[in-house]
Design a protein that fits this description.
alpha/beta, 4-stranded antiparallel sheet, 13 strands, 29% helix
Length: 282
């Protein structure tokens, strides 16, 4: 996704409470045209942030699009929520027509828009199928299709690959990588491989705020020389901050761990390593 003139979304000191539970705490960040991932533990406000941007929730603070309050403009927003459903007795095509109505896409443009989106998610051959006959993965793909319908300025995808098999996840990555124009795409996901495959920048959220924003490489660098593999008998080392995972290697059980301090000859870190390092430093 590239363009000479970029759109700009500024999230300025957003606060959101549910009764006494303060979910977003003066959260601020700036996004430009491109694809971003937001990584955070469960329950720290990823979905809440997306719903604030989509104007589903009221909030304190301000969200600006190209310098103007987002509520005072006609911004096209595509949104895929975590829980997405379809009217079972409608066909896929009829469901997409329904979304065109909601998005006020003109009748003369609808067929081309619907056909294009369904082809992108590889569901064009299912356009006359009743929604009740679709698999869970197909329903999710319809959700992605309606989110990109109408070339939105901002696309919000909340756990878009949940329930998709590996082939469908690869198709999703191709969809994102093939998006054109000036869209700002924000993806919430727990699947770090998706981040590495299709996101240009990453937001790490913790305790209701953005703890770190950077490129994939910059997030990886947060764990540089702090990732090692050790055998089970070395787990008592005082320099171990966190055990990430265990696996069998050369017939032995090996643990991949994050160290408290920088060490020599560390393993090449991943985005997940950088993310966990940042969280464990809280």
């Amino acid at each position: 996704m590239s363009s000479e003139i970029k759109n700009r979304l500024e999230i300025c000191n957003i606060e959101k409470k549910f009764k006494k539970n303060e979910v977003l705490k003066k959260l601020s960040c700036t996004l430009e045209s491109g694809v971003y991932a937001i990584l955070a533990p469960n329950g720290v406000g990823k979905t809440t942030l997306m719903r604030c941007i989509a104007d589903i929730y009221t909030y304190n603070g301000e969200i600006l699009f190209n310098g103007k309050n987002i509520k005072k403009q006609k911004i096209k927003i595509g949104y895929l929520p975590q829980q997405f459903g379809l009217f079972p007795e409608l066909t896929v095509y009829q469901m997409m027509e329904y979304f065109c109505n909601l998005k006020k896409i003109s009748k003369k443009d609808r067929k081309a828009e619907i056909d294009s989106c369904l082809k992108q998610v590889n569901l064009y051959d299912k356009k006359d199928e009743k929604n009740r006959k679709l698999s869970g993965g197909m329903v999710r793909r319809v959700g992605i299709a309606q989110a990109i319908l109408g070339e939105p300025d901002v696309i919000l995808l909340d756990e878009p690959t949940a329930g998709l098999d590996p082939e469908e996840r690869m198709r999703f990555k191709n969809i994102i990588n093939n998006l054109t124009g000036n869209s700002i795409v924000l993806i919430s996901t727990h699947i770090v491989e998706d981040v590495e495959a299709c996101c240009e920048s990453v937001l790490i959220a913790s305790d209701g705020k953005i703890k770190k924003q950077g490129t994939v490489e910059q997030i990886q660098e947060c764990a540089k020389n702090r990732i090692i593999e050790i055998p089970e008998e070395a787990l008592g080392d005082d320099n171990i901050l966190f055990v990430e995972k265990s696996y069998i290697k050369d017939g032995r059980k090996i643990y991949r761990v994050i160290t408290k301090n920088v060490i020599e000859d560390g393993i090449e870190p991943t985005v997940e390593d950088g993310y966990l390092c940042l969280l464990k430093e809280d």
